[in-house]
Amino acid sequence: MGRRPLRPASFNVMKTYSPKPRDIERRWYVLDASGAILGRLATQAATILRGKHKPIFAPHADTGDHVIVINAKDVTLSGGKENKKVAYHHSGYPGGLTETVYSRLLAKRPAFAVEKAIKGMLPHNRLGRQMASKLRVYAGAEHRHEAQKPQSLAPGEFPSWSGLPEDNATAEAASKGQPGSKAPAARPATARRATATSPAQKTAKRTTVKRTTSKTTAKRTAAKATTAKRTTAKATAAKKTTAKKTTAQKTDKKTTAKRATKKET
């Protein structure tokens, strides 16, 4: 067994890319549900909402785009599941379970049925709720998001997306035809200018130092005086309390002696 060859000095270790908020670009897409199968439509919408069609996709980040679903009333189910598939809802109280067949649900609330199918394919946590906030479902053919200029997609079609986002410097260099832009050179450190001080300035500095030292000594003496006053006050208070105690003890002794003499007599 021979030794493993060492890596060359020019070998660059590739770092794992993690998408950042500045790298995410949100686009708008329209999906026409007329004649589409519910499950296939839901998988297409959930993929775009999660951002799995992008090379910067990460399962812990919301890198998806906005999705608009129109004509939800014309969606269909395959295999005769209109009368077999059941939507359940529980109110939270005992006996509060309701069952609704999808034929009835699509007739009454088609937008809710499509939204329910798409949300079921998203993560069931706050990240999935954030992704679902980019979904708009309409039962008819009209929507109110023309200002965003959404792009229409065919059933089963996913938008094309270029590679990883580039820095502004590299993008400008690529547009100009340059191989790459070098980092700006570091500025040389400027030497500090030595300022000549006059004797008058030196004396002024000394006087200020003396004043500050005198102030500090005065503060210290004042602090010492206050502490001395406190200690003397405490000592006098202690002496008074001890004197009171001794006098009380003497009076107690006198009273006990008087009582003893009375008993003897």
Form type: elongated
Helix/sheet category: alpha/beta
CATH-defined superfamily of the largest domain: Ribosomal protein L13
The span between the termini is: 120 Å
Percentage of residues in helical conformation? 40-55%
For the largest sheet, list the strands in their spatial order. Answer: 5-2-1-6
CATH structural architecture of the largest domain: Alpha-Beta Complex
How would you summarize what this structure contains?
The protein is of the alpha/beta class and 265 residues long. It contains 6 helices and 6 strands.
Description:
- There is one protein chain.
- With 265 residues, the protein is an alpha/beta fold.
- It folds into two domains: 21-159, Ribosomal protein L13 (Ribosomal Protein L13p, Chain: A, Alpha-Beta Complex), CATH 3.90.1180.10; 207-265.
- It is 42% helix and 10% strand.
- The chain contains six helices and six strands, in the order βαβββαααββαα.
- The chain has helices at 38-50, 102-108, 110-119, 126-132, 168-176, 199-264, and strands at 28-32, 66-70, 86-90, 97-101, 135-137, 151-153.
- The strands form two sheets. It has a four-stranded parallel β-sheet with strand order 5-2-1-6, with helices on one face. A two-stranded antiparallel ribbon has the order 3-4.
- A hairpin with a 6-residue loop joins strand 3 and strand 4.
- Helix 1 packs across helix 3 and helix 2 packs across helix 3.
- The chain is elongated.
- The model is unreliable at 180-184 and 190-195 (pLDDT under 50).
